[in-house]
Amino acid sequence: MKLAIIAASGKQGQTLLNEAISRGLDVSAIVRDASKISQNVPVLEKDVLALSRDDLAPFDVVINAFGAPSELSHLHVTVGQRLIALLQGTATRLLVVGGAGSLFVNAEHSLRLIDTPEFPDVYKPIASNQGQNLQDLQAASDLNWAFLSPAAFFDPAGKRTGRYTLGGDELLLNSEGNSCVSYADYATAMIDEATAPKHPNQRFSIVGESA
User: Fold this and answer.
1) Is there a contact between 2 and 26 (Cβ–Cβ < 8 Å)?
2) 99: buried, middle or exposed (CB in 10 Å: 19+, 13-18, 0-12)?
């Protein structure tokens, strides 16, 4: 299996890249600035919006780890639509680092996390656009994709515990009643999905246990 990680120089991208390397996978980094990749892997230095079908054709799986600040959060939609267009009708699977805001917080699926009073306003633009990315994937035809939503607290500094639970469209709580997951445990689950797909054309979710 040949794997590519878009935005592999970002925080989550780096974690995904290191997890893939630790498993001995054939992984490449797709980044705007090759100097930010210190690992010994093939690097394609190209802006994600300049990618072509030929660029992605060699890969069995492409992970979209693109992230943008709130003021540029519309790019989550733009980049997502671009990748959908490039990979529709191909055998390449698209895995997306998603957000938690679009997860439902009730069994009736009538209330999303982003719509709860506790959800911080500062994160709403990113959550909304990541949610639109998910809707675009769900509406796409002839595309093999999966979208992994983290827990409410997505912890960049957390340890790799290997202790986590996967779910579907609802926000998950761990055994202590918390919704949190480390970048490292998230990366473990995402690379598991890359190597052994279990959620074709689905959004799935994850929650971790405390270290």
Assistant:
1) yes
2) buried
**pLDDT tens track for 95-152:** 999 999 999 999 999 999 999 999 999 999 999 999 999 999 999 999 999 999 999 9
25 CA to centre of own chain: 18
User: Quick one: which of 55, 10, 15, 65 has its CA closest to 33?
Assistant: 10
**C-alpha distances out from residue 175 to 160, 162, 207, Å:** 17, 15, 10
pLDDT at 41 over 80: yes
Residue 11: φ, ψ to 5°: -60, -50
Question: What is the structure's pLDDT at 3?
Answer: 98
User: Could you count the other beta carbons within 10 Å of the beta carbon of residue 109?
Assistant: 12
CB 145 within 8 A of CB 197: no
d(CA 34, CA 44): 7
Residue whose entry in the numeric block shows the structure tokens 């802006």: 47
Residue 180: what pLDDT?
96
- Among 77, 94, 83, 73, smallest CA distance to 146 is for 94
pLDDT at 210 exceeding the cut of 90: no
Q: Residue 13: count other Cβ atoms within 10 Å of its Cβ.
A: 26
Query: Taking a C-beta distance cutoff of 8 angstroms, is the pair 129, 101 a contact?
Result: no
Closest alpha carbon to 127 in 150, 101, 97: 101
